Amino acid sequence: MDLSKPLVLIGLGVAFLGVFMAGAVMAPFADGSAAAARVPAQLSRGEGSSSATAGDGAWLGASNQVARADSESEALDLAAIRAVEASAEIAAESASTPASSEASAKPLSSAAITGVVRDIAGQPIAGVLVRARPSGENYWRERQLDDMAQWPRDGSPPPVDLQRMLRQAAQQFARNDGKLREVTTDEQGAYRLEGLSAESWRIEAYAKGWRLRSTISEDPRAWPGQKIDFAGTRLERLSIAVKDPSGAPLARACIDVITPNQGEEQRLWTQEDPWIWMPPGSYSLRARSKPGQGPSSETVAVAVDPGVAPPTVELVLREEARVVGVLSGEVVTRFGSRSLSVEVQDGSAVQGMEWEYYNGSGRRGRSVEIEEIDGELRYRATGLKPGKHKLRVRLARGLLLHEREIDVPSGELRVDLELALDAGARVLEAVILDGAGLVQLDASLRVQARGERGPGESVVCVSAGEGRWWLVHSAKLMEKANEGSFVAHAQSPRLGPLQQSYKPLQEERLELRYSEPAFLLVRMSGPAPKGVMIQVALQVERTNESEPQEEEPSSMLGDSTELAFGPLRTGRYKLIVRGSQRDWNFFPLHEEMIELRSGRQERSVPLPELHTINVRVADAQQGQSYRGSVWRADDPSSSFRTSFSVTNGVGELAGLPTGRYEAELQERGPGGARRETFSVPGTAELVFGPANPNATPKLAVRVDLQDPAGRAARAGLAQGDLIVGIGGKRFEKIEEVQPRFSGAPYYLSGGTIPLDVERSGSVLRIDVEVDVLMYQQNSGVRFRTPGR
Fold it and tell me: What's the rounded Cα separation, in Å, for the pair 94 and 255?
């Protein structure tokens, strides 16, 4: 295969990757026709097709990039020339060497990846393009050690090797180019991908006018022998017209699509292609001149109904307003410019450049751009809506220094601010010292009022340089200062954490002094664990439950049987030993309370016996692969769960603590998944008997609980529960289980969905929030439909 042409294209893509990560797709919004002309049209237009991963149209991530200057454009042109030159060299090198085929290195599997594409009513969708491409997981794992070897470990700057980066991209391109497989669904909506190598594949589905999503995940990946189904929602074409404040039509704009309970997405709109494709539902639309910034339109509510062409939606950009000014005064002189932030807020939206979060209450805002020009500290807020706004200035992102309401007209309003602390505010100098009295220059410091969950507006910590800090307490809080105290939290890379209480009215200078730290050597005893990763953690004992839990030092056990911790603060700790299988789902193995004193100590921890058993599938064919999962059957609240694989009929389960388990072998076919119960010790081999082709599958969705404290568990679901119906209506056919479960009407209305759950022979009614079903990973659960 001649790679000359693809390699040159790859070179351009890779060279631009760093500088265009957020800006390449957004280049059509940059000022100047030259910049816009450099972006191919196909990068900025959506064709209305649907994907299992990206959805319809061109989805645009939020970008805070501003238009590039001419000098930047020239630099990019030079980078492109260098990339073309390097790519030409690599292409010539590849042309003289026969291209190696990775496909021939890996044996082809006799199994296929199959599935069915249906709409939300369960009807098949014919003519859908289903594509399989290698996931790249194995390739990048193989490259990881090589990449790590290129990174200096002595603090030196890493090398910038353009040719190496291009060569790696060329290898990956050649690998994927020869392996891409595509098929089209038949009249029953079924597809079958054959001739695949035995590795992980990413499966995608496309059909113009449809939004297609995998029924198991947003980014479905499968091995040969597995089944991936898709559910489709028909899209409706919505016509949009975007105009500037004078009423003249725009050439292009960014459309914010706001969906209730699902957040906001951005799509590119152009005058040549003035439509966006959307599934039925209720939305709010807003146009912007540039993604995330610039003038915007009013938000317009739109209802998209199935089969009904909605009228054209007209979005007119508002006249842009901006606020500028100079910051001065004693606060600027004393604390410097880096400690200040400015907010300009209209209602609940704060206009500015970047997101910042304050306090644990969830209040959030964006800080306005601040820079020092000609000896003046200037701020600038752009893209504002004319009208009344709140202007605020904060110290260290928390303490409110100034707030006023301003009436912003179209155009520019200048507001200069002289900043000073309120009368009664208290400022203390703080310093962090080690046991010998030396200042710790690399230590960090944070302060909070006792009883607060996190840093708030009452007290802030401002760096004064050279290991010194200013602790600034608000005047309002000083009125109540005698009623309680504050807590200063220091963190040193060498000496660990330290906290100290103080009362600001009784202090002039605060010294946080470390005592001699403690060091702990944990020595593991017992048989070496097989198939289990061991984590050892230390949890500080809290004397006051209202205080936040300090971060626990933890480390993974490698080839050695010893782990060293330190430096640590003296005191009482809970020593916790956890185990984890391949999915990083930790379960406890050992816990005890220990007392750490200054100096070095050792602790011997016995590991419980962990068991290993063989797995066999009685009717497995040569080359056939299976995957399965295991969970505790004797303790529904246990966080233990793991998976296993079987190749050519044999496999292994390692690292099982003593107990009773349930194992499921996942497979396609009319019999659904096979299950076996076993106990260790007492079981040397787990055997899955022959599948019964005449068996009637359990028409249910099994609950695989992955987090005993997650949202699914809190809703009342337990490990091994079987969802046998929705809203009192049982599943009657295996073909309807997945479409009904994934396309229930409750998803459109939000709220809760009534699940009929079978547990211990009884059927329970459990109302579960729709988000638990839609966002399974975040809810600590996986729902497995028949055959999965």
Answer: 44
Integer CA distances (angstroms), 235 to 277, 424, 718, in order = 6, 62, 36
Q: Which of 219, 204, 223 is nearest to 108 (CA)?
A: 223
Question: Mind listing the pLDDT tens digit for each residue in 505-557?
Answer: 888 899 998 888 888 999 888 776 776 788 888 888 766 555 555 556 777 77
**pLDDT tier at 104 (50, 70, 90 boundaries)?**
very low
- Determine contact, residues 572/541, Cβ cutoff 8 Å: yes
Kind of pairing, strands 599-606 and 518-525?
parallel
Torsion angle of the four alpha carbons 143, 145, 150, 153, in this order, in degrees rounded to the nearest 10: 150
Query: Under CATH, which architecture does the 698-788 domain have?
Result: Roll (2.30)
Superfamily grouping for domain 113-168+176-230: Carboxypeptidase-like, regulatory domain (2.60.40.1120)
pTM of structure: 0.50
Long-range residue pairs from 480-485, CB within 8 A, at least 24 positions apart, any chain:
481/426, 481/505, 484/449, 484/450, 484/451, 485/450
Q: What is the DSSP letter of 627?
A: E
User: What whole-number distance in Å separates Cα of residue 547 and Cα of residue 697?
Assistant: 52
Strand partners, 691: none
Q: Which fold has domain 430-513?
A: Immunoglobulin-like (2.60.40)
Pseudo-torsion of CA 254, 260, 208, 122, nearest 10°? 170
What are the residues whose beta carbons fall under 8 Å from the beta carbon of 76, sequence distance 6 or more? 16, 19, 68
Q: Which helix (H) or strand (E) holds 252?
A: strand 252-259
Reference 390, options 409, 403, 408; nearest CA is 403
Give the tens place of pLDDT for each residue, 451-510. 655 445 678 889 888 889 999 988 777 665 555 578 888 988 878 788 888 888 888 899
Answer whether 231's CB lies under 8 Å from 119's CB. yes
CATH 3.40.50.1480 holds for 518-606: no
pLDDT at 682 over 60: yes
Inform me whether the pLDDT recorded for 77 exceeds 50: yes
441 φ, ψ (degrees, to nearest 5): -70, -25
Listed in order, the ranges of the chain carrying CATH 2.60.40.1120 are 113-168+176-230, 321-418
Contacts of 497 (CB under 8 A, 6+ apart): 489, 490, 491, 540, 550, 551, 569
Give me the phi and psi of 504, to 5 degrees please.
Answer: -60, -25
Amino acid at 538: L
Mean pLDDT lowest among 197-201, 284-288, 382-386, 528-532: 528-532
> Mean pLDDT in the chain?
75
Would you give the distance in Å from CA 773 to the centre of its chain? 18
| Per-residue pLDDT at 116 | 94
CA quadruple 40, 45, 47, 49: dihedral sign: positive
Q: What's the mean pLDDT in 92-114?
A: 61
For 433-449, b/e burial (b = at least 16 CB within 10 A) is bbeeeeebeebebbbbb
- CA–CA separation, 387 and 349 (whole Å): 13
Range list for CATH 2.30.42.10 in the chain:
698-788
Q: How many CB atoms lie within 10 A of CB 211?
A: 21
Helices H, strands E: what count in the chain? 12, 54
Token pair in block for residue 559: 């080839």
Using CA atoms, how far residue 466 sits from 335, 338, 433, 448, 490, in Å, is 14, 16, 12, 22, 15
CA angle 654, 657, 658 (to 5 degrees): 120
Q: What is the DSSP string of 297-335?
A: BPPEEEEE-TT--PPPEEEEBPPPEEEEEEEESHHHHHH
Any idea which architecture 321-418 has in CATH?
A: Sandwich (2.60)
CA distance 780 to 277: 32
